[in-house]
Write a structure and sequence with these properties.
By secondary structure, the chain is of the alpha+beta class. The chain has ten helices and eight strands. The strands form two sheets. The protein has a five-stranded antiparallel β-sheet with strand order 1-5-2-3-4. It has a three-stranded antiparallel β-sheet with strand order 7-6-8. Strand 3 (57-64) and strand 4 form a beta hairpin. The chain is elongated and about 65 Å long. The protein starts with 23 loop residues before the first strand and ends with a strand.
Length: 250
């Protein structure tokens, strides 16, 4: 049925990203979905890159102190020229006249030099491009990944991506059946992390569950009991808060 059992069911090994982890960690989305990897990397405040491949699709997401700061993808829809075409900022005839338009950085530099885009518009465009890549990765049902603490982004490529907001938005829209499969049992326990709520607009129900954990660890079953929410709703709220980094999961 996909529902978590009342007893521990060791069918899904966990991956714990820590500063003491091996230099490279590998896995796949069937066991460790992208959103959970990003949450773990954020909690451990790691530097490095997450390389992801699924059939012909390839992406790399770069992190600094656990934050997503850059991402690249080989999909055409993730390229800067395609984004500008879709937004009617450029026409096909314009694109073909731009040298090496398929290189995002050269295209951005060219458009800025010609006065077509300001520096601030270029930065905002890259930020939106990275967010599109991250959101798209959240929808991948399958993929192989490698996290490397050695492969890091070069200086100067550091964009302000609101990763927590993207994770929360994704979690809130997850189907209940998918979400229930991400719990091993109702005996998993949670407690309030040290991360502030700053920058997040929690719902009243999310705030209530977070308040319940202020006094120490509670199991998922405890939270269901004290909140009077249905099991499915309580787990949905818990998972959302965990992805946001506001709950520590044991």
């Amino acid at each position: 049925s996909g529902r978590p059992t009342r007893h521990l069911c060791a069918t899904r090994p966990s991956v714990r990203m820590t500063p003491q982890s091996e230099l490279e960690v590998q896995g796949n989305f069937l066991m460790h979905p992208f959103v959970e990897l990003v949450a773990e990397i954020a909690t451990a405040r790691l530097n490095g890159s997450l390389r992801i491949a699924d059939k012909g699709r390839k992406c790399i997401v770069y992190f600094k102190s656990g934050r997503v700061v850059f991402a690249v993808s080989n999909e055409r829809t993730a390229r800067l020229f395609d984004i500008l075409l879709r937004r009617n900022r450029l026409k096909k005839d314009d694109v073909t006249q731009i040298p090496n338009f398929a290189n995002d950085h050269e295209l951005a530099a060219y458009l800025e030099e010609k006065g077509f885009l300001t520096k601030r518009e270029v930065e905002r465009l890259f930020t939106e491009q990275i967010e599109e890549i991250v959101v798209n990765l959240m929808t991948w049902p399958a993929g192989d990944w490698t996290f490397s603490s050695l492969a890091r982004i070069r200086d100067g490529l550091n964009f302000d991506i609101d990763t927590r907001r993207l994770l929360v938005d994704y979690a809130r829209c997850m189907p209940e059946a998918t979400l229930l499969s991400r719990f091993r049992s109702f005996d998993e326990s949670f407690e309030r992390s040290e991360l502030p709520e700053e920058g997040l607009e929690l719902t009243a129900d999310e705030s209530f569950v977070l308040w319940c954990t202020n006094t120490g660890q509670l199991t998922a079953a405890n939270i269901v009991a004290v909140s009077s929410f249905s099991e499915g709703k309580a787990l949905h709220l818990i998972y959302t808060l965990w992805l946001a980094g506001l709950l520590e999961r044991h």
